[in-house]
Amino acid sequence: MRPVYVLGVGAHPWGKFPDKPQLQLAIEALSAALLDTRLQFADVQGLVAASSRFEGGLGWGLHANEILQTVAERGIPAINVGGGCAAGGIAVHTAALMVASGQCDIVAAVGAERMPKGFIPRPPGAPDDITDTDYLRWVAIGATNPAYWALEARRRMHEFGTTERTLALASVLMHRNAVSNPLARYRSECTVDQVLSSPSVSDPLRLLEICAVSDGAAALILGTKEQARRLGVPLVQVAGSAVATSCFGDPALRIPAVATSPVEGVPHTSEVAGAARRALELAGMGPVDIDFIELADNSAWQVLAWPEMLGFFEPGQSDWMLEHGEMSIEGRLPVNPSGGFLSFGEATTAQGVLQVCELTWQLRRQAPGRQVPKAGTGLAAILGLGGNGASIVLKI
Amino acid sequence: MQAIETIAAAQDLFTFCGETPHLMGSRCDSCGACYFPKTTHCRNPACRHSNVVQTLLSPRGRLYSFTVQGYRPPALFRMEPWRPYAIGLVELPEGLRVMGMLTGCSPEEIRIGMAMQLVVRTLHRDELGRDVLTYMFEPVGVAESGQ
Q1: Which range of residues forms the domain containing residue A280?
Q2: Is position A171 within any domain?
Q3: Residues 6+ apart with CB under 8 A from B6
Q4: Residues A308-348: pLDDT tens digits?
Q5: What is the ipTM metric for this complex?
Q6: pTM
């Protein structure tokens, strides 16, 4: 396997863009990533797209084909990857493998999304019966996605004494980080009191503690060392990348399941824990070697739970770390210097690609106002429907 | 007075043994793993001979966690009249944790660790005039105290 480098990164800002089709968001993000490294569509030897169920992809999730048929119809491989909200991470991983294997020297990965308003509803296509838990959870319980995170958050409060103020503080940190990120949708600082006085969505989680849904797109171009040298870009290397799926006995109550049967010793959110462990292993690193992380903060609960689940902190330790500034940009383990999902709103399949763009900007020291002082290595981790996890480690 | 017809929110969700409702799940005869809702295969990778049979799950357990949902979910969920309601995760003796609506107590009274029992309640009345039923959990003792 050959070493893989990030040649270029680019993104369309997150927000609501009713006049821009998903395809246009994708092309704008790809164009930005190509411009970043002075390449053109004609230079790309393969395109991997995260498949969305919401818009585009010719109704079959063929997002890469749709892009090629619009801007560069020249016979290159198009790979469309599913994976729910982890699809962006899986796309980056797949693109990295295409370069590492020697099949291609320059490959692009893209995720672009236009989200419907409100709670994410049930996907089409499954039968209206009990064999589809995404049917069952709606008709029998009415459990929205935030209800799942809220059940975890409430349990955490019970087990570790996490307070509503600490959950609010996690949201405050994410919003503060986003203030100087031009790509973020919500760029105003907020206070603990403002978070605590926002309406309760799924108690104990409030409106400012769950992620909105946004439109957005991100792309990156991966290539060989020779290409990186030729283009004169900073040598940001994919030190490790991995995808994984959930394990039997995982205690996580996984959307859209309505039951879980925990087995002693099986890690929580095992698809993401497993992917991150493997990505670190491939990088020859441990959590202690990572300078900052980008994680999927669908709610304030994940900001606390994931650094522990990923092995960066001991169980229950995040509260202290957050309260003492250790998860801030200047802290011991900066978490989501980008501002995370809470500041972007989730553009589901684009999110995993954006995380790796942020790692790259940080490692290149191109993150003014939110620059992690010591950024030599970064880890991204993302979760998707169906027990999908992906994790990418970059180093410079 | 004519009895109102009833229908479960989903088929094979629950059944009654006498007066007592039970959730319908599956149990693997080889490794003992339990599932809800019912399933066709055992997904325990350590299980060599997946042999899944239908089982009725224990109607009692302890509250593992809960939330109060403050916004109305998408239209697939129907509840009349709609009002914010609690959802809980209840740990059954089988080791399963099952999610369900909570009833029989106000949100302020809910405590993790409470003994809960399965009940069947009406969510709404459908276009054919049938009461649509779902399972819920309520604190043990509510029925006896006549609330």
Answers
A1: 5-118+210-395
A2: no
A3: B122, B130, B131, B132, B133
A4: 999 999 999 999 999 999 999 999 999 999 999 999 999 99
A5: 0.95
A6: 0.96
